[in-house]
Amino acid sequence: MSTSDNDTALLAYLKTGSLQAxxxxxxxxxxxxxxxxxxxxxxxxxxxxxxxxxxxDFWQNDRYQKIDLTNIQTLKNFLFxxxxxxxxxxxxxxxxxxRRMKDIMLPEEYTLPNNKLENNELKExxxxxxxQLPERQSQVFRLAYQEHKTRKEIAASMQISEETVxxxxxxxxxxxxxxxxxxxx
Length: 185
Prior knowledge:
By secondary structure, the protein is mainly alpha-helical. The protein has nine helices and no strands. The chain has two domains: 3-93, Orthogonal Bundle (Rna Polymerase Sigma Factor, Chain: A), CATH 1.10.1740; 104-182, Arc Repressor Mutant, subunit A (Orthogonal Bundle), CATH 1.10.10.10.
């Protein structure tokens, strides 16, 4: 029996909704998907989590019911493309986080506090500045920088466009930088 025939049989078994079929599917492909994710992400823990999330989504969202092996050559190809896309999305999300952290850098003339008390004072100062932002800007800023949400996630949760999110974040950063520059550290 060829791999394609095995995949077709496994998919047919999965489509019955059998938990045993899902277990077989999981144990058949989890290691291979992990290695695929590791090749792309170069991070063991992130790769494990990504593969686990894939299997959870696959089962909970009945994705096995929607796969048509006549449109894809094999189940393995479908799995590879799915994991590759998740990895690329993760890389983009990580890049967004890094860019955001860079964007919120303190003014060059500011030196980091040496003790916990100074850190707490700075946090309070920043929190006060965020609270002075218009409500929508403050909410968008908090989602972006404190909860590390992507523009797309923020837009969906607030029911606004991604462009509006981008403008709100840019305006919030501009206001916060100006406020912090005024403060004498």
